[in-house]
Design brief:
This protein has eight helices and seven strands, in the order αββββααααβααββα. The protein is mainly α. A hairpin with a 7-residue loop joins strand 1 and strand 2.
């Protein structure tokens, strides 16, 4: 069933009235045409669907599918995008939950602040974002070129090195609030923090095994991990690695496509 009007209104207000898709910036709230107490809200989608043939369907006993916790505010275009059958595997429950959480965090950071923040130069911050995006692009290009090998636990040497560099913000020193390459624009910095955290997890995961250029690899530019005596541990390690890589890929594309 469609969400009630008050649920849609509260969900949209919790994201600051902005579409929860990180690649979008459409406003969702506006005055209605039926009087001074009328507010129009565009739109809201179910994160988990109760319709058996719907997107992200999952049967959960006694679950309230129309509760606000299952409601993600989106503009009309993004709503259609995530619900299109061709995109169901791309926009999973986990992805939409992450979108909603991040959008609410961004709205929380923007509270009681002016729309045009005067203490940084927008052109400078665009340069910071561009530099960070270029470093991410080197990782994405390498992963894309050799994506068939990821499932086997094989990475290009450049992807391995750049992920480790990314865990420090592609620079020297520890990543933090005062890092010289961290944007003063809270919207950009929040995405940078999330990406660095993902690359930190990946680096920790990579360091759990001994990675090197082994003779059985088809190219000296590839590296992989030393296998253990237990194949199930290796497959679990590869699954965890690929899971984190997919998160990094999605976050990197979202960052590069930010409006």
């Amino acid at each position: 069933m469609p969400f009630k009007a008050d649920v849609r209104l509260i969900a949209a207000a919790r994201t600051g009235g902005i579409c929860a898709n990180p690649r979008c910036s459409c406003y969702l709230l506006g005055p209605g045409d039926d009087g001074p107490y009328q507010v129009d809200v565009f739109e809201a989608a179910h994160i988990i669907s109760g319709a058996s043939k719907g997107p992200r369907y999952k049967f959960i006993l006694d679950f309230d599918y129309d509760h606000i916790s299952n409601c993600i505010p989106l503009c009309r275009s993004c709503h259609r995008l995530i619900d299109h059958p061709q995109n169901w595997k791309m926009y999973t429950v986990e992805v939409l939950q992450e979108w909603k959480f991040d959008a609410e965090e961004m709205a929380r950071m923007r509270r009681n602040k002016p729309i045009n923040v005067p203490f940084f130069d927008p052109n400078t911050e665009r340069g910071v974002r561009r530099k960070f995006a270029e470093n991410l692009g080197m990782i994405l290009d390498s992963l894309w070129d050799h994506q068939r090998l990821l499932g086997q636990g094989i990475l290009s040497q450049s992807a391995y090195q750049n992920i480790c560099r990314g865990s420090r913000g592609f620079s020297f020193g520890e990543w933090g609030h005062n890092h010289p390459d961290r944007s003063h624009d809270a919207r950009i910095a929040y995405r940078q923090d999330g990406l660095v955290a993902t690359m930190e997890r990946l680096t920790t995961l990579l360091y759990q095994r001994r990675w090197a250029r082994y003779t059985w690899l088809e190219d000296i530019n590839f590296c992989s991990f030393r296998e253990s005596r237990f194949s199930n541990l290796d497959s679990r390690y590869t699954d965890n690695l690929n899971h984190e890589l997919q998160i990094l890929i999605r976050q990197a594309h979202d960052f590069r496509d930010m409006p």
